[in-house]
Automatic annotation (TrEMBL):
Keywords: Monooxygenase, Oxidoreductase. It comes from Melia azedarach (Chinaberry tree). The lineage of its organism: Eukaryota, Viridiplantae, Streptophyta, Embryophyta, Tracheophyta. This is Monooxygenase, FAD-binding protein.
C-alpha cells in the first residue's frame, strides 16, 4: 500500500544533529580473488527455474532473497550493469496479490533509469492533484501537484503489473520459485550458505535480503521485528468495467481516529484505503466478504462515492493489514550489511505509507546498491564489504528521517480528540498546510544504468 498525506512535517522536528543528513568477467578484490560476476543473457520471457541443487550445494555469485518490488528492481538494476543474479521466491509464482501503490517522481526516475518507466506510464493515469475532505463530504483544501513542483509526477500503479514488468526484464531462469529460506549461515570460506525448506543448499558470494517486513535475513542479521504503530488499513481496487467516473486526483477523507482515500489508477480501476485505530494487531482475517463488510461499516455515513467503490471491489483485491515500521537508530540498530549480506527495501526499513515512499525508497535502494557493487567489481582496491557498507552509509540518512516523518504524520492524522480534529479541519488543513515543502523528499537524482558507463 502507498498513500500520501498532505499533513506532513519537514525534517525540522528531528534533532539538529540529523538535519544535515537529508539530503562479463571482472577484476576482483585480492581478498576475494575468485569473485567474478557473470551476466545472464535473455532470449525469452521470465520463467521459473526448477534446477535442483547438488547434494553439497550449488554455488551462485549473487542471490537475492525475495521477488517483490525491492528484489526484482535490484535484479534488474544489476542486470542493466552487466551483473547476473539469482532471485529466490518462496511462493510458486510472483506475489501479484494486493492492490496498488503510489509512485512519486523519485520512483519514476528509478524506473526510467532501469528502462521500464515508459512501458508503465502507458498503463496508468497521471494524478494531477489532491483534495482533502471532512467525513461529511465538505472539501477542506485542494492542491495541484505541478503548481508546487513542475517536475512532479504521481501515478498509482497496480502491484501485479509492476512486478510482471520488472520480471520480464530479466534473463530466463533468473527467478527460482518455491524456494523458501529455512536457514542462513556463514560458511568457513566466507560464502553464505542458504538452506531452503526442501533441503536444497546454495552457497552465495553475496546475499541481498529483499524479503519484506518479516525478513528472515534481517532477523539473522540481528534486526528486531517491525513495530505495530497502532492502526490497521483496509485496501482494495474497485473495478468499473464501463469506465470509472473520477477526476485524476487523490481524494482524502479525514474523520476521528479514522481516515480514507481513493485515487483512480486506470480508466477502469480505482484504489481505495481505510485506516483505523486499533490497540493491537488482532487476529488475521482473510475472508474477503467479512473484510468488505467491516470496511463499509467503518465509513457507513461517509460520502456515498467511497461506499460505491468498495461495493465494486472484487473479493480477491481486498486485504487488511497492520501498519508497521522500524526506526533505525544510529549506534543502536544493526547496519544494513553484515559481511557480504545486505538488506534492501522493507527488509531493512519498513515504513508506514503516509508519505507514499515505501516502494519509492525500495527502488532507490536498488539502483544505489547496484552501482556500489558494479563500482567494486571495477576497482583495484575496493572490496565488496566496503561497497555494501558504503550503500548503507549513503542510504541511512535518506530513509531514517522519512521513516520517522511517515510515522508522525500517520499519528497526527489518526487523532480521535474531537477538539483537535476540529482545529485540524478548520485551521491546519485549510490555512497552514503547504504542499511544496511536503514534496521535497521526492527529489532524487538517478541517471540511466548502462553497462560500461561511469556510475
Amino acid at each position: 500500500m502507498a498513500y500520501f498525506s498532505p499533513l506532513c512535517l519537514n525534517s525540522s522536528f528531528l534533532p539538529p544533529s540529523l538535519n544535515h543528513l537529508q539530503g562479463g568477467a571482472c577484476r576482483c578484490p585480492q581478498s576475494y580473488s575468485s569473485f567474478c560476476f557473470h551476466a545472464r543473457t535473455r532470449s525469452k520471457p521470465i520463467c521459473a527455474s526448477t534446477t535442483k541443487a547438488e547434494p553439497q550445494g550449488r554455488k551462485e555469485d549473487i542471490v537475492i532473497v525475495g521477488a517483490g518490488i525491492a528484489g526484482l528492481a535490484t535484479a534488474v538494476s544489476l542486470h542493466r550493469l552487466g551483473i547476473g543474479s539469482l532471485v529466490l521466491e518462496q511462493d510458486d509464482s510472483l506475489r501479484t496479490g494486493g492492490t496498488s501503490l503510489t509512485l512519486f517522481k523519485n520512483g519514476w526516475r528509478v524506473l526510467d533509469a532501469i528502462g521500464v518507466g515508459s512501458d508503465l506510464r502507458s498503463q496508468f493515469l497521471e494524478i494531477q492533484g489532491m483534495a482533502v475532505k471532512s467525513e461529511d463530504g465538505r472539501e477542506l483544501r485542494s492542491f495541484r501537484f505541478k503548481d508546487e513542483d513542475e517536475s512532479q509526477e504521481v501515478r498509482a500503479v497496480e502491484r501485479r503489473i509492476l512486478l510482471e514488468t520488472l520480471a520480464n526484464q530479466l534473463p530466463p531462469e533468473s527467478v527460482q520459485f518455491s524456494s523458501k529460506l529455512a536457514k542462513i549461515e556463514t560458511s568457513a570460506n566466507g560464502e553464505t550458505l542458504l538452506e531452503l525448506v526442501d533441503g536444497s543448499r546454495l552457497y552465495a558470494k553475496i546475499v541481498i535480503g529483499c524479503d519484506g517486513v518479516r525478513s528472515p535475513v534481517a532477523r539473522w542479521m540481528g534486526f528486531s521485528e517491525p513495530n505495530y504503530v497502532g492502526h490497521y488499513a483496509y485496501r482494495g481496487l474497485g473495478y468499473y468495467p464501463s469506465g470509472q467516473p473520477f477526476e485524476p486526483k487523490v481524494n482524502y477523507v479525514y474523520g476521528r481516529g479514522l481516515r480514507a482515500g481513493y485515487v483512480p489508477v486506470s480508466p477502469t480501476k480505482v484504489y481505495w484505503f481505510i485506516c483505523f485505530n486499533n490497540p493491537s494487531p488482532g487476529p488475521k482475517i482473510t475472508d474477503p466478504a467479512a473484510l468488505k463488510k467491516q470496511a463499509k461499516e467503518l465509513v457507513r455515513n461517509w460520502p456515498a462515492e467511497l461506499l460505491n467503490i468498495i461495493d465494486l471491489t472484487p473479493d480477491d483485491t481486498i486485504i487488511r493489514t497492520p501498519l508497521v515500521d522500524r526506526w533505525l537508530w544510529p549506534a543502536i540498530s544493526p547496519p544494513a550489511s553484515r559481511g557480504r549480506v545486505v538488506l534492501v527495501g522493507d527488509a531493512w526499513h519498513p515504513m508506514t505509507p503516509n508519505l507514499g515512499q515505501g516502494a519509492c525508497c525500495a527502488l532507490e535502494d536498488a539502483v544505489v546498491l547496484a552501482r556500489k557493487l558494479a563500482d567494486a567489481t571495477k576497482s583495484e582496491t575496493a572490496s565488496v564489504e566496503e561497497a555494501l557498507r558504503s550503500y548503507g552509509s549513503e542510504r541511512w540518512p535518506r530513509i531514517f528521517p522519512l521513516t520517522i516523518r511517515a510515522n508522525v504524520v500517520g499519528s497526527l492524522l489518526q487523532w480521535e480528540n474531537p477538539v483537535v480534529c476540529s482545529v485540524r479541519n478548520s485551521l491546519v488543513i485549510p490555512k497552514l498546510v503547504r504542499l511544496g515543502p511536503v514534496l521535497e523528499h521526492t527529489n532524487f537524482d538517478c541517471e540511466p544504468l548502462l553497462e560500461g558507463t561511469k556510475i
